[in-house]
Amino acid sequence: MTPLEDQIRDLYRQVTDAEQPPAKVSIAEALRQGRFLRRRRGFSATAAPVAVAAAVALIALALTLPAYVHRAAPVRPKTANPAPAPGQFDPLTVNISFGWLPPGEAAMTGGTGGLDSWLSVYQEHNLNLHGKADANTRWQLTQYARGACTLGASHGHLFCDTERQLSGHAPDINGHPAFWESNNGLGSPYGPHQALVWTYAPGYWAELTSTAGRWQSGQTLLRIARGAMIGAGATQPVKFVVQLTGVPSAWRIGSTFVVHTGGIWLAQNYTVTTRRKALWGGSSDLGNGLPSVVTYVGGGSCNLFTRPGHPKQLRINGYQVVANTNTSGGGEAKLCAPDANGLQVLESLSGAHARVSVTTLFQRMRVLGPKPSAWTTRPIAPLVVSSAVGFPSGAAIAVLALVVIVLAVTVALRRRAAS
Amino acid sequence: MPVETDAEFAEYVGVRLPSLRRLALLLCHDWHCADDLVQASITKLYVHWHRARKAASVDAYVRTIIVREFLHERRSAWARRVTLGSLLPDRPAADLDADGAIDLRAAIATLPPRQRAVLVLRYYCDLDVEHSAEILGCSPGTVKSQSARALASLRRQLEASANTQSGRGAVIAVDNAVEEAI
Fold it and tell me: Do B2 and A195 touch (CB under 8 A)?
């Protein structure tokens, strides 16, 4: 050990021994953003093989009906808020609810769109708990779209987004087969958690997870599961505090993260997609220049938006905003309005192919304010479709389809060569 | 993600937050940057929590995230600009040759991010070359060379500082056996 090395150690010790200022780190914020990122990752991982399969299907279509490829426009949904389709969920509605929960508990957050839709019961103040396991009562109810889950041979496991080991049959849930999940709780300070999966309709799976911290009786889980309402009978609209206007007509909501406030399911985070049929919430479009939007009622701080990147203070539609462009990692543009009509609005556009800037998006955004009476169930109101600003035309879509076909053929040839 | 892991994650971060902030402070050299770094790192930790909780050491896992996130951020043009004006720690050392410590801090602040990270891993986290290399995602040889360059650079700067401030008594002994010590 040299004197200089000793000096460095001493210096580090002195610096770290000094009193720390209050932390600006928020665990709740990390959980919120982490959940959102996690779901994106899951969606992207499953989207790739599905994209290849879609490309192969496109080739078959191109071979049999060559003219169709160039003429075909994506099929428009029949209504703005279509009922849940067999293979996906409508991102504009929450169509799942707890019919019964233990006294004092209620669903607080959820997610809509894509192949799964879910609700969570938890107590926010417990997110910073220190060992108070018994106070951490939580439930999560998830429904999966048809085909999203596969029951393994001999009913040993169920594969949805991840694999669940099944420990055995559970009593039927409203006449449908059900199974207990096996979880020995290894690595968890709360011990084993309980989970139940069942088919709520042929081909559709639902899952109820309890990580209550105190051991809930199986009867409680069964009671909650039997009371769960899934599908058209439980449909409630998702409301939005901002509305995107003047955006391409192909834009639609891909998935949302919703919070329950004042009896309303309010979209806090959402992604935009151009796919007519969403794949895991359409989040595979993230990175292709389509926006994700986060809104908080009551305003907030934009400090975390100032780096890395090139932040600019701007005034748009009378609101102070920070726009930030980070050119590394494929390019990402962000905009943060700390207090726009009583709302904090955050926009993010990632990928090198953004056809509209975050500032333009904000210029065209209707900020509806904090009053629930002003909120909307139509988050996107297309007004302008202009090829002048580079929005995809029929020809562009045809070129894109061609690119997908070429990629799919390349993949197929490589696989053949490898085998 | 099963919801129980949320509480597990929150509990872990709640307990470890002070030590995570200390590590971030040594990398960043100011509390604002340190908190931003910790915020970004624990968000990533949450995304990978299912893997982290199964790791042999969660602390080592999160340390890797923090260091790599720091290096990633510092690669951006914006961060490089900020680094030129980076602040010294808010509180100067209370004892032990205060001027010398300030010189040393200032010298460390001028080091490239990777060299700074090497010093923190070696002399604050007390990691050997192999473990430091693992965290940085490079070879042990690179850690050795980065460490040697960092120490040599510090020595040069401290000597220059001592020469220009006669009478301060903060002359740093020159040690030519750095490479052997690593």
Answer: yes
Measured between beta carbons, which residues in chain B are less than 8 angstroms from residue A4? 151, 154-155, 158, 172-173, 175
Question: Is A132 an 8 Å CB contact of chain B?
Answer: no
- Confirm if A292 and A348 have CB atoms less than 8 A apart: yes
Both tokens assigned to B173: 């002994």
Q: Give me the pLDDT at residue A52, please.
A: 62
B101 vs A contacts (CB less than 8 Å): 7, 10-11, 14
DSSP H or E segment with residue A315: strand A312-316
Calpha distance A408→A406 (Å, rounded) = 5
Contacts of A128 in chain B (CB under 8 A): 10, 14
The pTM of the full predicted model, rounded to 2 decimals, is 0.51
Distance from CA of B65 to the nearest CA of A (A): 14
Task: Flag if B78 and A310 touch (Cβ within 8 Å).
Answer: yes
User: Hey, what are A255's tokens?
Assistant: 């998935």
Residue A108 tokens, joined = 């607080």
Q: Which amino acid is at A172?
A: D
List domains and CATH numbers for chain B. Answer: 1-90 (1.10.1740), 92-182 (1.10.10.10)
Condensed to tens digits (0 to 9), the pLDDT of residues A195-237 reads 889 988 877 899 888 765 545 667 888 999 999 988 777 889 9
The residues, any chain, with a CB within 8 Å of residue B32's CB and separated by 6 or more, are A24
Going residue by residue through chain B, which has 182 residues, state the pLDDT in tens, using 9 for 90 and above: 555 678 888 888 988 899 999 999 999 888 888 998 999 999 999 988 888 887 778 888 999 999 998 888 777 544 444 443 333 444 444 444 556 667 788 889 888 889 999 999 999 999 999 889 988 888 989 999 999 999 999 988 888 877 765 544 433 433 443 334 33
Question: Which residue among B45, B46, B172 sits closest to A4, beta carbon to beta carbon?
Answer: B172
DSSP letters, chain B, are: --THHHHHHHHHHHHHHHHHHHHHHHHHSSHHHHHHHHHHHHHHHHHTHHHHTTSS-HHHHHHHHHHHHHHHHHTSHHHHHHHHTPPPPSS--SSS-HHHHHHHHHHHHTS-HHHHHHHIIIIIS---HHHHHHHHTS-HHHHHHHHHHHHHHHHHHHHHHHHHSTTS--PPPP-S-HHHH-
> What letter represents residue A157's amino acid?
H
Q: What is the pLDDT of residue A75?
A: 37
Q: Which helix (H) or strand (E) holds A245?
A: strand A242-245
DSSP string computed for A140-208 = EEEEE-TTS-EEPGGG-EEESSSEEEEEEEEEEETTEEEEEEP---TT-TT---EEEEEEEETTEEEEE
ipTM comes to: 0.78
How far from A157 is each of A143, A163, A190, A209, CA to CA, in Å? 17, 7, 23, 16
